[in-house]
Amino acid sequence: MMSRSDTDTSRARLAERNLRLDAEGFLKHLSDWDESVAALLAKNENINLEEAQWEVIHLLRAFYQSHQIAPANRALVSLVRRELGADKGQSRYLMGLFGGSPAKTAAKVAGLPKPENCL
Questions:
Q1: Is 117 strand, coil or helix?
Q2: Average pLDDT, consecutive stretches of 10 residues, N- to C-terminus, the chain (119 residues)
Q3: Catalytic site residue from 38, 87, 118, 119
């Protein structure tokens, strides 16, 4: 778990890089994304990115490239199950990586728009 000062520092670094976020913390310009931006966005969500998160982030970005949409939770679980295996294609696994709304948080960290039907 990260401290409030870590989160404040990541917000300041996003601002220093002139990255514009919407009110929910999603990038306004998808082209601003790179892995260092993902790390800052993840810190804003109190997530330390490790190999398992990166695997899902890269899968999401590839899916978005092909379909121009970020999948909501149920579709994300199906995508992960199909591409990464049944052990990873479970809601509880994804919640362990990205918290209570994994599709929304993973899309945010991946620099993608908010999935439809995600609160």
A1: coil
A2: 52 68 91 94 94 98 96 96 97 95 96 84
A3: 118
Phi, psi of 117 (to 5 degrees): 70, 15
> Are residue 73 and residue 33 in the same domain, yes or no?
no
HSE (CB half, 13 Å, CA atoms) of 37?
A: 25
Distance CA 101, CA 8 (A): 22
- Give the structural domain span for 40: 4-44
99, 60: one domain: yes
Dist. CA 106–CA 94, nearest whole Å: 9
Q: Tell me if 119 is assigned to some domain.
A: no
Co-location of 33 and 58 in the same domain: no
My answer on whether 57 and 100 are in the same domain is yes
Q: Is residue 116 domain-resident? A: no
Confidence (pTM): 0.87
* Termini Cα distance of the chain: 23
Told to judge if 118 belongs to the known catalytic residues of this protein, a careful annotator would answer yes
